[in-house]
Design goal:
By secondary structure, the chain is mainly β. It has a domain at about 1-75. It is about 5% helix and about 50% strand. The strands form 9 sheets. The protein has a 5-stranded mixed beta sheet with strand order 9-5-34-33-32, with no helix packed on it. A 5-stranded mixed beta sheet has the order 10-14-13-12-11. Strands 15, 16, 17, 18 and 19 form a 5-stranded antiparallel beta sheet that branches. It is elongated.
C-alpha cells in the first residue's frame, strides 16, 4: 500500500513539474498521461511517439473534453463514444469496430453515429446508409378547387380533363394550365399558384383569340419573360389542331396569330396535322419549341398501354419552332418554318416531353425531346435552332433500353455547373400490374461543343409495389436531392433520392391515401397530371384529386414533404 501511495505522489509531483517547465510528456499507463490538452492537436507528440513503439491504428491519444487530459484508447474523434468500422493504414483497411451497433460512419461529427436519432439535415445520422428517412413529414393543402359538384364519369359540372405546370423563374409563381370540363365541353383554363404552393385559388377559363368557341384540351404551358406564359392546346373547335399563343397572367385571354389559330401548327410538307394530341412546350430566350404527336389510328382513348408497339402502329413525333414577336403587352408567337420537323415514331400516346437546356461549356443552348420509341424504350434527342429552322444535333443522345413498354416520361434538371449538369429521367416501365416507376440519372458534360451523357445511375426502381404510374420528378438544390412522386393503388407516393442515386428512406412516403371506388370512392388520384417543385426545406407535389364526399370534389391538391 505504501508503494502505491509513493508512486501516486511521485506521479502528481511529476505532473506539477511538467506543467511548470513545459517538459515533453510520455505515457505512464493506458489510462493517464502527464499533462493537459485543449484539443487533439495537443496530443500529437504522444501519437508520434506511440507510432515508434507499440502502434495500433485503431487506438489513439485523444484529448478528453471533460478532463482536458490526453487519454489513450479507441478512436473517437468526435467524442460520441463510437469508433469507425475501419481505418486505412499503409494503404490497407484495418477493422476497428465489428459491432454494427457501435460503428461511427462519421467520426468527425458527434451528431452522426449508430443508433442516434435521424434528423432532417440531409445526412445519415444513424449510420444505416440512408439520409433523413422518417424525418420528413407530409401535409396536404388545397390548391385549385372546381366549384360545381360532379362524380367520376359524369358529363355535367366542372372538372379538369388534363393539366400542365410551369414555374416562372423570376417570380417563382407556378402556372397551372388545364382543360376545364363544363357541361360536356372542354375549355382551356389557367390559374397561378403562389411560390410556396400554400394558398388556395379557383378556376379561370381562358378565351383563345380567333378560336370561337374557345374549346380545347391537351394543354401545355411554359414561362416567358414578363409574367407571361406560352400556352399550347389542341382545339376541339372544328378540326383538331395545335394552337400556341401567349397568356399574360394579368388577363384571361391567350393571344394567337390569326392564321395559326385557323390552321394550327404547320405539319409535314404536303400533309395536314389534323389528328394531333399531347403537345409539350418549352421556351428560352425568344424561341418557343412545341412538340406533339400525330396519330391516325383512330380514337386515342381506345389505345391501351403497349398496344401501339404490339400492333406496330406508332405515332409520329413532330416539333415546330416559334419566335416571340410584338410588344410585351401585345405579343404573339410566329412560326419560323413552313413545316414541322419529324423526330421519330412513338409507341406511347402520353406524348413527348421537352426540357430547355442552358449553354454547357462550348455547347450552346438547346432542347431535349424525350419520347417512347417503337421498341418501347426511352429516347432523348437534342435539338437546337439552325438559322430559321430546327435541327436535330444529337439524335438519341440518351437511350434507355426497350423491350418493355415505357410511358409517362418526366425530365428535370439537377445540379448545374458551367461545364456540366445532372439530368433526371423518370418514367413508367411496363403496363398494368407490372408497371413500375424507374429513375435514371445522367451527367451532361461538354464534349467539344456537343454533349456527352455520362452514367450516374440507371434503372433504379423507385417504388417496389405494383401498378405504379404517372411519375413526376423534381430537384432541390438546397438538399441536393430528387423527389419522385407517383400513383399506385394505395394513393400518391413519393421517394427521396440523392444525387448519387442513394434512396433516402426504406419505404415510400405516403402523400395522399386513396380509397378504392368499390370501398366508398372517398378519395382517388386522377391521372395523368402531376408535378413536383422544390419549396422551402423540401418538396411539394401537385396532383389531381377526386374527393367524392365533398361538395367540390375535384381539385388540384398540394402534398408537401418537408422538415417543417
Amino acid at each position: 500500500m505504501r508503494a502505491r501511495v509513493a508512486d501516486r505522489s511521485s506521479l502528481l509531483a511529476c505532473l506539477l513539474a511538467c506543467q511548470l517547465t513545459g517538459c515533453s510528456l510520455v505515457k505512464l499507463s493506458d489510462e493517464i498521461v502527464q499533462g493537459h490538452c485543449r484539443n487533439d492537436a495537443d496530443c500529437a507528440e504522444l501519437n508520434q511517439q506511440q507510432a515508434q513503439d507499440d502502434f495500433d491504428p485503431c487506438q489513439r491519444w485523444q484529448c478528453n473534453d471533460d478532463e482536458k487530459l490526453c487519454r489513450y484508447g479507441a478512436l473517437d474523434a468526435d467524442g460520441d463514444g463510437q469508433s469507425p468500422a475501419a481505418v486505412m493504414n499503409d494503404g490497407k483497411s484495418v477493422t476497428c469496430q465489428r459491432d454494427p451497433l457501435k460503428q461511427d460512419c462519421a467520426d468527425d461529427d458527434a451528431d452522426i453515429g449508430a443508433g442516434l436519432p435521424e434528423l432532417c439535415d440531409e445526412q445519415d445520422n444513424d449510420c444505416d446508409g440512408l439520409a433523413d428517412e422518417g424525418a420528413l413529414e407530409s401535409s396536404t393543402t388545397g390548391a385549385v378547387v372546381f366549384g360545381k359538384p360532379t362524380r367520376a364519369g359524369a358529363g355535367d359540372g366542372e372538372a379538369a380533363s388534363d393539366a400542365a405546370y410551369a414555374r416562372d423563374p423570376m417570380s417563382g409563381e407556378i402556372a397551372l394550365a388545364y382543360g376545364v370540363l363544363q357541361s360536356g365541353s372542354t375549355r382551356p383554363g389557367a390559374t397561378l399558384l403562389d411560390p410556396e404552393l400554400s394558398a388556395s385559388t379557383s378556376t379561370s377559363t381562358l378565351a383563345v383569340e380567333h378560336v370561337t368557341p374557345a374549346l380545347g384540351q391537351h394543354v401545355a404551358v411554359a414561362p416567358l419573360p414578363g409574367s407571361r406564359f406560352a400556352y399550347a392546346l389542341v382545339t376541339t373547335s372544328g378540326a383538331p389542331r395545335v394552337v400556341v399563343g401567349v397568356w399574360n397572367t394579368n388577363a384571361t385571354q391567350v393571344l394567337v396569330q390569326p392564321e395559326l389559330a385557323e390552321q394550327g401548327l404547320a405539319c409535314l410538307p404536303g400533309e395536314e396535322c389534323r389528328d394531333v394530341l399531347a403537345p409539350a412546350v418549352a421556351a428560352q430566350s425568344r424561341d418557343v419549341l412545341v412538340a406533339y404527336l400525330r396519330f391516325d389510328g383512330g380514337d386515342p382513348a381506345g389505345v391501351g398501354c403497349g398496344q401501339l408497339r404490339e400492333e406496330d402502329k406508332p405515332a409520329d413525333v413532330l416539333a415546330n419552332l416559334l419566335l416571340q414577336r410584338g410588344t410585351s403587352s401585345d405579343e404573339r408567337l410566329q412560326e419560323q418554318s413552313s413545316s414541322a420537323l419529324r423526330l421519330g415514331s412513338s409507341s406511347d400516346l402520353t406524348g413527348p416531353v421537352l426540357l430547355a437546356l442552358p449553354p454547357i461549356g462550348a455547347a450552346p443552348q438547346s432542347w431535349l425531346v424525350a419520347y417512347a420509341d417503337q421498341d418501347g424504350g426511352v429516347v432523348i434527342d437534342r435539338v437546337q435552332r439552325n438559322g430559321m429552322a430546327l435541327e436535330v444535333v444529337q439524335p438519341a443522345l440518351i437511350r434507355l433500353t426497350g423491350g418493355t413498354q415505357s410511358s409517362a416520361i418526366a425530365l428535370a434538371l439537377g445540379e448545374t455547373g458551367e461545364d456540366e449538369l445532372q439530368l433526371g429521367i423518370v418514367y413508367q416501365r411496363g403496363c398494368g400490374s407490372a408497371a413500375r416507376v424507374v429513375l435514371a440519372l445522367r451527367s451532361l458534360v461538354d464534349d467539344g461543343g456537343k454533349l456527352a451523357a455520362e452514367l450516374v445511375i440507371d434503372g433504379l426502381q423507385v417504388g417496389g409495389a405494383s401498378n405504379e404510374t404517372n411519375p413526376a420528378l423534381g430537384y432541390s438544390a438546397a438538399r441536393d436531392t430528387w423527389l419522385v412522386s407517383y400513383r399506385d393503388l394505395t394513393g400518391l407516393r413519393a421517394r427521396v433520392v440523392g444525387a448519387d442515386g442513394t434512396v433516402h428512406a426504406q419505404q415510400p412516403y405516403s402523400l395522399i391515401e386513396r380509397v378504392k371506388p368499390e370501398d366508398g370512392a372517398e378519395v382517388d388520384i386522377l391521372p395523368p397530371s402531376m408535378a413536383v417543385f422544390d419549396v422551402g426545406s423540401g418538396f411539394a407535389t401537385v396532383a389531381h384529386v377526386l374527393r367524392a364526399a365533398n361538395e367540390a370534389p375535384r381539385a388540384f391538391e398540394t402534398a408537401h414533404l418537408s422538415c417543417e
